[in-house]
Structures are given as structure tokens and as C-alpha cells.
Amino acid sequence: LSGAPPLAGLRVLAVEDEALIAMMLELMLEELGCNVISVVGTIEQALKKVETLTLDAAVLDVNLGGEKAFAVADALMERGVPFLFCTGYSESGLPEPYRRQTLINKPYTRDALGAALASLRSSAGR
Amino acid sequence: MAISSVSPADLSRIFAATPNPYLLLRADPPRFTIVAVNEAYLRATGTTREAMLGRGLFEVFPDNPEDATASGVSDLRSSLDRVLRDKAPDAMGVQKYDIPFRDGSGRFEVKYWSPINTPVEDADGQVDYIIHRVEDVTEFMLAREREDAKHAWRIETVEAKAERMEAEVLRGGAELKSANRELKQVLERLAEANAELKEIDRIKTDRLQAMNDQLAVETAERRKSHELLQAVTENTPAVIYVKDLDGRYLMLNRRFGEIFHVDPAAMIGKTDYDVFTEAQANAFRAMDERVARADRALTEEEQAPQDDGVHSYISVKAPLRDDNGQVHAVFGISTDITDLKRAQEALVESEERARLIVESALDAVIGIDSSGAVVDWSEQAAKTFGWMREEVLGRPLADIIIPERYRASHRSGLARYLAVGEAHVLNRRIEISALHRDGHEFPVELSITAIRSGGTVTFSGFARDITDRKMAEASLKTQIERMSELARAEAKFRLAMEAARMGEIIVDLKTEGAIHTPAFAKLFGYPADRRLSLAEIMERWHPEDRARVIAERDTAILGGASAFETEYRIVWPDGTTKWLSGRGQITRDASGAATEVSVIYMDVTERKWVEERQNLLLAELNHRVKNTLASIQSIALQSRLDRPTPEVFGERFEARLGALASAHDLLTQAAWEGASLADAVRRTLAPHMKSGNGADRITIDGPAVQLSPNAAVTLHMALHELATNAAKYGALSAPHGRLQVRWSVDRSATPATIEFVWTESGGPVVQPPKRRGFGLHLVEKGLAHELEGAVSMQFEPGGLTYQVRLPASAKVAPL
Lengths: 126, 815
Prior knowledge:
Number of helices of chain A: 4
Helix content of chain B: 40-55%
Order of helices and strands of chain A: EHEHEEEHEEH
Radius of gyration of chain B: 74 Å
Distance between the termini of chain A: 26 Å
Radius of gyration of chain A: 13 Å
Strand order of the largest sheet of chain B: 2-1-9-8-3
Number of strands of chain B: 32
Oligomer: heterodimer
Strand content of chain B: 15-25%
Strand content of chain A: 15-25%
Structural class of chain B: alpha+beta
Number of strands of chain A: 7
């Protein structure tokens, strides 16, 4: 590994409802050097975290227990927190305002997750 | 007057001395030359005789040019003219007639006169002189004009004479004048009346004369025409008669008598029933009555029996009216048309024969005699039937060209005709099968004519091979059948369309008029008998699809396509949304412009719903598969966390995959709607309950709690970890170990809380784990994360106790 992880210290909120996947996501984020601030599985919890925590980025599962997580996406956008979607659906499943959002498909690898976060970070830094 | 004793000289003297003023004028208008004047006149006018004699009256006494109203000359002249015309005296009444002063000053003296002019006729009654007598009434008139009372009084008293004179003169003059005028008017009227009377008389006379002449001519003509009519009636070959309304003969002509052998005179008063058979008489009577009823002339054909058979007549019958206009008789003329009819029939017959000959020109001509033997065989016959003339002459026709099965009827027909003259096949065209020399049968059209001559009968047959025509007919028949099959197919198609709830519409693009089938109306949510306009139809288009439908349609119509397909939503009048699928055809004119569009629509709402559902399911499946893969990925990743040997990793990984699969099986059983907590627990523990150590080691107990699919998977996986742990290291690893799984619902909390307790006992002494592997991780964090549960684990030496409090939610719902 060359030097410090590129995403070191990045404060990340993980939103994923399926426990098995949430656990893996948390693990991957930690391995990427991120500071996983919180892992939540419902829209209400996620909205609360977005409102109360200082975040550098968020990873957002589109489908939270059968509900679409667009309210969380709106809150993140409003607060200027860059985020990426991860989903089991195809890209065309997203409605218009979110089509240009960074998206990774399940199942994803740690590297794919890292690259997506890095792209968020670089575009947010500009 | 006895003046004969007075000499002319005396007369002159007497005239000159007459006390009233007189002038004698020559009747030479317009001059009226003064030929004599008496002293009184000279005095009254202050004129000399020399100034007057030989001069014209109006030369001497012109009008006063100072007096614009002077009418003396014209009045006097009118009076003189009247005298000349009427040869009667004319009194003028008081007349202002100023006289020139004789001093040569040219001035005039005001004068009023009462003149009277009297004609003097010569021996021939011609007026040659007029006596002009005047009276000077100037003094009186001026006095009146002045209206001076004193003066008037003076006149009253002093000039009483003048007063009388006034009355006399005024009355006399005026009366005379008006009487004169009236008399003249009466005379004129009388003369006119007389003339009129004379004219009327003349006209009357002329007219009477003319009428007389006319009458004479008419009488002569009538007599002549009556004679003529008589002659015609008696000599015409037509039968003429008049019958009253009861059918009694009032008149009949000689011809009638001749034909029906009756005496015309004796027939009068008799009826048809006295001469003809009842049936015949009835027929005549019937027409007579029809004519009387119709009240107009009718023309009909009638039959009457005569010596040489029944004759045909054209009868024209007309009603006769009496003076009151009432029909009282029927007049008839019947013309014998028997010969004409015969001639006509003969003509028709000969035309028919000629036609047959013409038509048969290319036919095979075959002649047979009464025995049926061939006597004639034309070139064409040889070609048609394959036999040469020499080969068939004298042989029975039946043996040559008539197929076996018809021969008997041919012979019997021939015999019947010869015996009783009856024939079924003569003089008409029949189609029949004929036999060719080579043995094949073919259809022929045949006409046979019998020719009688001198007691013998021969038959001429004209035959034509109609194989080609038959084939054409057959092909036509096939075509017609095919067309009717097509029609049937179309009807079937329509039925199928109705059955499949397909509706058709045709839109005329020029008029935008639309016609459609009843099913079409039903497709749009209307009763079948409703006729929809294009606008009404378009109104039903779904607002979200409208723009697309219009764009598609325009592209198809303007783009030159001949067919198109479309699929869109409509909204029924009751608000229901339906999907329609249409296939259209575009009709174009020579220039390529679209003129008509016809579209067949089908309700595909159900299909669309299924499609949508399918898409949804596919997306869901995709999502689930991806998530499952991610879950497997997670299991694999975390199974490595406690750094197992490859063998151990493989074993654990497989076991966990099995648990995941088992959770999916559970969900699949309930159509992935979820699972019950009890099922999840039992399923997890089933492998351990089957073991020989007895199922009573494990107790499962709790109320019904429904889990969402995700919660079921997570819980299932967690329970799997707990069970695996128990089987390896805990209660289930020892023969007398026990496991209790219980849960209860605390409904007093808000939200209600599910209390889940996993209690192990009787197993080996428990030691807290040195490392936290995937299993523990999942049991602790997984449930806490996904179900927001509060987890507590006690690794007591007697056994593990695992407790979790789950708030009731959509994921975990107590029933």
C-alpha cells in the first residue's frame, strides 16, 4: 500500500437496511480508512443523522425496507453533503433529479466503493 | 212680317231712326264688316257713320289697352261666333266695352253695354248678316260701382226708370244666356243619345243577321255530319253500340247484326244475355260497368265467338252523359283485331325462327325423320361429334350422339310427339349431354324444330358444343363460391373482433367524419349503440399520452406510411383508465396525400397490467438477487474475519449459505411477503431437534409475530449463528443440555415491545469468547442495526442467555 489511504479520516454516513450488507459496508469503509460516523437502516434514522452530524460523505442504499431513500438524498443535497447511491436496481430505476448522482451497483467491491467515494470527494473539492 | 209693302228705302230710313242703337254686320268672320249703323248707335258711341261703315267691328271698337281686364272684343267675338254656329240670337249680358275718345287722344271712355246679336238668314237658311243691338248701361253701372248712398238714393228717386231697366236687363240677359246654354247642352246630349241609339240598333241588326247565317250553316253541317256518322256507323267493319246502364241496347250498327246474326232493330231493349253465352255476356257486362264506374273511356281487349271461331276485339268504351252530366249509357266501338293478332304471332314466330337460324349458323345441324334416322348432317356436325356425314346418314340418331341413358326417353318423346303432337323439347334451347365418337360425353346446347310438310314430319336440330362455356361457368361458380367464402370469413373475422373486444374506426381525413363499429364505442366505455365523433374520441385520450399520440399519428400520416401501430391510454367516462393498442392503415390518393385512416383497436389493459407487474417483478427480482449476492459477499468477507483455516472457512461459509438459502425458502413459501417468528425459530432449530437426543430438549414458545422479509433473513441468520454456537460449544453439544426459546409481547410499552429470550442450560461450562467473529457480530450488531433491538448477552457458566428487546414495527409486528 502506498502511503496513507486516500480517504483517510473521511467522515461517512452509511445508510443500508440489510444487516449483512450494512456490516460489510461498514467493514469496507473502515478498511478504506474512512471514519464511519454512523450506520443506519431506516429513513427516519438517516434523516436524524444527516441533520445532527457533520459529514464529509454518505453512502445511500436506494431501497430502505421497501421504501425509496430519496428523502434522505434530498436532505444530503440540501446540506451539500456529497453522496453515492448503491442499489440492486438498474440505473434506469432512478427518477430524473437523481440520475446524475454517482451510483454503484450491488454487489460492489471495496475498490469500487473507494473509487466512487474518491470521485465524490474530488468533485466536492473543486 | 208683312214688310213687302215697305220699300227698301223706307226700311233704311226706319232702321236709321230706330230708337235703340243697332249695327248691321256682315257674317264674314273674323272681320264682321259694319254694313249699317243707326243714329242711336252713333249717338251712344259718339262715332260718325263714315268712321264705321265698311270697316271691321273690332277695328272700330278695339279693347281699351289701358284696361288689362278688358274682355269686350273676345266676349263679343264669341257671341257672334255662337250666332253664326247656332243660327240663334245670343244675348251677352252686361258687358264692359270701353270706347275710344274721338278726340284722337287714343284714350278710352268707360262704357257698359247690354248687347244682343241676332242672325239674319238668307233664302238658303245661311246666316249672311248679324244684327248687333246694344243698350248703354254705363251710367247705371258706374252709379252701382260707386256705391254712393246719396247717389244711389238719387238713382232711386230720380232714375227709377234706370232701376227697372237694371232688373230687366240683368235678368233678361242672364236668363237668356243660361237658357241658351242649357238648351244647347240638351240638344247636344240628345244628338249624342240619338247617335248611340242608332249605333246600337245597327249592331243588333248585324249580329242577328250573323247569328242567322251561322245557324243556317250549323244546321247544314250538323245534318251533314249526322249523315256522315250514319254512313260510317253503318258501313264500318267495327262493331258500334250504345247500352244503357242496365245493359239494354239503345243502338247498334249493322255490322253488329251481321256478325252476331241479330236484327239491329229487334235488338234494341235487349241485352248481351239474349245473344251470347252467360260467360261471354258477363265479360262484356263487366267491362261496361268498369267504364261507367271509371267515368272515362277505357280500352280493353275482348273476345267474342263467331262462326269461324273466337275473334279478338279491341274495345273502346266511353260513358255517355245526359244533360245533367249523369252517366246514363255506355258507348262502345269494338274493332276486330283477330287477323292482326295472327299476323303478329306469325311475325314473332318467324322472327324467332330467324333468330334460331342466325344463332345456329355455327351450330351443328342435324336432320332426322320421324323414325329418328339421320337425314341431314352438316360439316359442323361432323366436327362436333366426330362422325362423317356418310357414316351416319340413315342411322338412328339415338345410336350416334345420345348417351345410353337418354336413348329411351328420346325414343318415347319422339313417339309421343308423332302420336299427339306433344313435345317437351321443341323450339327451345335445352342443355344436354351428347356423345362424341371417341366415347367422351360433353355438354351441348340443343334446339329442335319440327318441320311438317305434306303429312310427313322431319326434325332439325341445332347443336353447339358448350364445353368451354360450361367450364367458364364452373370457374365463375368457383369464383363466386370463393368470394362468398371470403365474405363468410370476413363475417367470422368481425365476430372474432367483437369477441376479442376489438373495435374498428374509419376516419375521413378531409371531413374528419368518423364511423366505427359498436365494439369501438364499448372500448371507449360507451354503450354499443353510441356514435362517437372524432372530437369525443380525442377527448378520451389520457392527458399524459395525448401529445405522443398526436405526434405519432402526424408522423404516420405526413410521413407517407401506409400502416402504423399505436398504444396509449384512454380515460373512460366513468374515470377508469384503459390501455388501447391499435393497428392502423392509411389510404392515400394518387398524389400520396392521406385520405382515410382505418384503425382496429383492442383493449390491452390487462396485458399492460401484466407487463407492468412483470417489469416490477423483474426489477424486484433483480434487486433481490443483487442484494442476496451482496449478502453472500458479506458472509464470505466476514467469515474470514476470525482468520479460519481454509477448511473451517469453507465449512462455515457453506453452513451460512445454507442458512441464507433456508431463510429464502421460508420467505418463498409465503410469496416473499414475510414469515412468522415461530417458523424462523423452528426452521433454524429443526436440524437439532431431529437428533436422537430428543426433541424435548428444545422448547419454543411465544405469541404470533410477523417478520418482514429482511427481518426474517437477518433473524434467521442470527439464530443460525446462535444454534451453531450452541451445537458446537453450548447446551446442544451436551447430552442433557437444554435450550429454551421464548418470546412475549409487552403491549404496555409504546411502541409495543417484543421480548425475545434464548436460554441455554445443562451444557458445558461457558466461557466468554476470546474473539468476536462474524457470528457474534451478527447476533449483536446485526439485530441491533436492522431491528433497532437492544441486545444483551450473558455468558454465564451455566449457559448462554441471549436477550433482545425489539420495538414493534413494520418489520416486526405482533399480531
